Q: What sequence folds into this?
């Protein structure tokens, strides 16, 4: 395990939480948090790097492939199913409110993006290949699960893996370009393209990391971390899919140099502290659990606390917005810790 990468995983998971929470605070209305959805592409690159680190030379038979995919399934699916059940309950709550009260939900229950077809697709983890539904963040888990399978098939069946990794990255770039030029039939398919492009860029990054096998000074890592934050902050200024193309390339360089820090590096020591590494260890729970809790929190704020909403942001008085943000983040961290300890670990 490369501890500094766990730190990035944990901190960026919290960025996603703030991105979806939408309370009227300075931080949540900053460009960085508004554009924070782009950190998902960092997760894809990181997954490609880490999966390659652990499995590039270990899938040598069909049985190895089955074991690999089973481990990936057990890592992802149980919490996905649990959070999906939470969203089914949310749809039932909407249905009951619409039927038995004078209130009406914004969207008709079990319709639109959350229709029955999408529900079935969620059960089979294929929903992310055409968009998103129910637990919004889970689209990336859907695309990533089958990208793992593509990776395993390449490792098992082909000697020249580098060629196929490069081919998939280039093919993704072509699809990005076609969508940029007006091929709108690719609009929904951009979700898996983002995953495949970034994941295999991460795999290529690991191969370079392994070939170089050297340490770099902190300067390059500081510089690339800065550029990573910068591209997220200003990504809305880039045309369509260009943000995914450029950001993932910068993310891959960041991961390469941070992974190559010398063990005595001050930056490595900072990024390896036990608190942020802990966040990394519970990051999957943070990522998957928060969106449903956000829904309940927003209903409580609007209908119990009578908090007004402006442009989809909850507007609290004075510093209550900041206070509720801190309490919400701490609550999600606590829930994610419980999830890891008492639920997720059961399937590892």
A:
């Amino acid at each position: 395990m490369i501890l500094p990468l766990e730190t990035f995983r944990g901190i960026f998971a919290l960025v996603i939480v703030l991105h979806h929470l939408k309370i009227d605070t300075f931080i949540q209305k900053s460009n960085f948090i508004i554009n924070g959805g782009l950190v998902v592409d960092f997760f894809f690159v990181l997954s490609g790097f880490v999966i390659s680190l652990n499995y590039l030379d270990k899938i040598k038979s069909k049985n190895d492939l089955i074991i690999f995919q089973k481990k990936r399934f057990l890592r992802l699916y149980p919490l996905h199913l649990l959070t999906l059940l939470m969203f089914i309950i949310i749809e039932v709550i909407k249905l009951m409110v619409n039927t038995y009260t004078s209130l009406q939900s914004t969207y008709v229950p079990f319709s639109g993006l959350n229709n029955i077809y999408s529900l079935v697709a969620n059960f089979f983890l294929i929903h992310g290949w055409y968009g998103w539904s129910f637990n919004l963040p889970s689209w990336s888990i859907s695309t990533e699960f089958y990208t793992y399978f593509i990776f395993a098939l390449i490792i098992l069946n082909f000697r020249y893996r580098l060629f196929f990794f490069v081919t998939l990255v280039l093919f993704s770039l072509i699809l990005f370009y076609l969508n940029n030029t007006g091929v709108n039939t690719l609009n929904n398919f951009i979700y898996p393209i983002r995953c495949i492009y970034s994941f295999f860029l991460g795999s290529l990054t690991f191969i370079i990391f392994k070939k170089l096998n050297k340490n770099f000074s902190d300067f390059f890592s500081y510089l690339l971390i800065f550029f990573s934050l910068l591209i997220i902050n200003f990504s809305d200024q880039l045309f369509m899919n260009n943000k995914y193309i450029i950001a993932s390339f910068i993310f891959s360089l960041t991961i390469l140099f941070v992974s190559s820090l010398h063990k005595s590096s001050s930056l490595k020591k900072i990024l390896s502290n036990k608190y942020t590494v802990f966040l990394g260890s519970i990051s999957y729970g943070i990522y998957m659990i928060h969106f449903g809790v956000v829904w309940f929190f927003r209903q409580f704020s609007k209908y119990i606390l009578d908090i007004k909403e402006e442009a989809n942001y909850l507007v609290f008085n004075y510093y209550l917005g900041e206070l509720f943000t801190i309490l919400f983040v701490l609550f999600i961290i606590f829930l994610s810790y419980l999830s890891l300890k008492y639920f997720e670990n059961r399937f590892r």
Notes: Residues 261 and 268 are 6 Å apart (CA to CA). The longest strand covers residues 308-310.
